[in-house]
Amino acid sequence: MTAALPENTILIIDDNVDTIRLLSAMVREQGRVLFATSGAAGLELARLQRPQLILLDVEMQGMDGFAVNEQLRRDPDLRSSAVIFVTAQSSPEAEIACLDAGAVDFIPKPLNAAVVQARVRTHLRLQAALAVLGDLANQDGLTGLYNRRYFDRQVATEFARHRRHQLPLGLVLVDVDDFKLFNDRYGHQRGDACLREVAETLQDGARRPGELAARYGGEEFVVLLPNTTPAALARYGDWLCRRIGALGIPHAAASAAPHVTASIGLCARIPAENDTVQGMLHAADMALYRAKRAGRNRSVLADESVSDVPAR
After folding, report:
1. Nearest to residue 86, comparing CAs of 70, 62, 65?
2. Which residues in 31-49 are b (16+ Cβ under 10 Å) and which e?
3. Which pTM value belongs to this model?
4. What are the 4-aspartylphosphate sites (modified residues) in this protein (predicted)?
């Protein structure tokens, strides 16, 4: 049997404790096993733990497996979790119903240990392969950061979550100062190397759960910082400016310093009902514009009221 991968999380949702014990014993060597004894508890645990694989009983009291699966499919954070239905119904019609509902597989009761282990192992491997492909599709080829398409999806999800729970969300726009002059003087290869070094700095500063750094376009980057107050975001912006300057990348044509620097626009707020992601990005962009107008190599926190001055 293959050794468990530490990142594999298997969630068992079943209202029969004996079945949970039996399944847990069968699959415990293939990953971290969690369990819930009701559909509602399973959904809550899935949202907290983001399992790769869910073994879901069809016949449960209250919310049955099909209802739980429908909620999983509707949740953008959970729809990538693979669901294997576990049921005493073994007719072709029952199997078709499970697969039509979006499950990746079907395990009939009574449970056969070898069959359960083989199917779980197969779908964990598929999930790992899909994760690799997903990472490649979401990655910027030059810097290795997330790309803008991935950022757009994640910021929409985080914005909705922060508005629902009334938490402060932080957005950071980073623009490498005088980058066209850098390319003109040192060449595009050194320009690419410069962007990679800046990207690595951004990645190092976005390590907490939910934080992400992405390439927004050209020499511009964006950082998403969940649950971050304006005061904390201002400190982060100042720190990031210092870190980028400390890279010491020579830039003789720069206007702010003899090395590469960055201008940074910050926006942090608790999203209100009439707020939008686009509005927050616009506010951060206006703050970035102000940082450039003030001499570059600095960070500026957006005002609550944002003017209509065009960006750069």
Report:
1. 65
2. bbbbbbbbbeebbebbeee
3. 0.64
4. 57
Measured distance CA(254)–CA(110) in Å, rounded: 72
Q: Which of 93, 219, 220, 304 is catalytic?
A: 219
Alpha carbons 152 and 158: distance in angstroms, whole number: 10
Strand pairing class (220-225; 169-176): antiparallel
- Please state the length of the chain: 312
The question of whether 219 is a catalytic residue gets the answer: yes
- CA Rg, the chain, in Å? 24
Which fold, 9-137?
Rossmann fold (3.40.50)
Q: What is the pLDDT of residues 49-98, one digit of tens each?
A: 999 999 999 999 889 999 999 999 888 778 889 999 998 887 888 889 98
CATH 3.40.50.2300 residue spans of the chain:
9-137
